[in-house]
Specification:
Number of strands: 9
Strand order of the largest sheet: 4-3-2-5-6-7
Distance between the termini: 19 Å
Radius of gyration: 16 Å
Shape: globular
Structural class: alpha/beta
Largest sheet: 6 strands, mixed
Cofactor: Mg(2+)
GO biological process, one term: guanine salvage
Subcellular location: Cytoplasm
Bound molecules: 1-O-pyrophosphono-5-O-phosphono-alpha-D-ribofuranose, manganese (II) ion, magnesium ion
Family: Belongs to the purine/pyrimidine phosphoribosyltransferase family.
Catalytic activity: GMP + diphosphate = guanine + 5-phospho-alpha-D-ribose 1-diphosphate; IMP + diphosphate = hypoxanthine + 5-phospho-alpha-D-ribose 1-diphosphate
Strand content: 25-35%
């Protein structure tokens, strides 16, 4: 059956939990970016849900742009190689850049983006991440702002996908183990 709620073992963060995290982070960012006209960079595709909610909690004059980077493709685990699929339209030179991400796992994607934007002459490069998954970290990348830590579970919803589906769940849940097994056996 194709009902998207059926693939969830249990809920981790409800819509209200997510909203509270956005409010809290938005307040911090409003203070820290006051007067800076930051460029907010969303990492496609996972970050778009979080970005749109987060920026509406920021009372800051900001620009928004997107980078499409991908390391997973349709795989369960990171390939270890990050690809720049589609670039920003904005020049980041001398800008205060805030990268928005849904999740940091190995850290490879975030590290790739941070290094790229620094190389291009950004004045500052920080990030705001909804979920910080530390168990599989491969590169030591600074995470200036995050909503919550998560354990080593496969989380989906609110932008986070499994084989590119289930991003449109309103909440964040843990995938049923049998769903993962189905794929691993193929
Ligand atoms: C996922 C996620 C992060 C990244 C985190 O993106 O949205 O961007 O992986 O993993 P890492 O810390 O191990 O690099 P993905 O490459 O699946 O693309 P998507 O956002 O389009 O789903
Ligand atoms: Mn992503
Ligand atoms: Mg993905």
């Amino acid at each position: 059956n194709d009902n998207i709620n059926n693939i969830i073992d249990h809920k981790l963060f409800s819509e209200d939990d997510i909203h509270q995290m956005c409010v809290k982070l938005g307040k911090q960012l409003t203070t820290d970016y006051a007067g800076k006209k930051p460029l907010i960079v969303g990492a496609l595709k996972g970050a778009i849900f979080f970005l749109t909610d987060l920026v509406r909690e920021m009372d800051v004059k900001a620009e928004i742009d997107f980078l499409d980077v991908s390391s997973y493709g349709n795989e369960m685990e990171s390939s270890g190689k990050v690809k720049l699929v589609s670039d920003l339209a904005t020049d980041v030179k001398d800008r205060d850049v805030l990268i928005v991400e849904d999740i940091v796992d190995t850290g490879l994607t975030l590290d790739f983006m941070k290094e790229l934007l620094k190389k291009r002459g950004a004045k500052s490069v920080k990030c705001c991440v909804l979920l910080n998954k530390e168990a599989n970290r491969k590169v030591d990348v600074d995470i200036e702002y995050y909503g919550s830590k998560v354990g080593n579970e496969f989380v989906v919803g609110y932008g986070l996908d499994f084989m590119n589906f289930y991003r449109n769940l309103k909440y964040i849940g843990v995938l049923k183990p049998e769903i993962i097994k189905l794929v691993n056996n193929k």
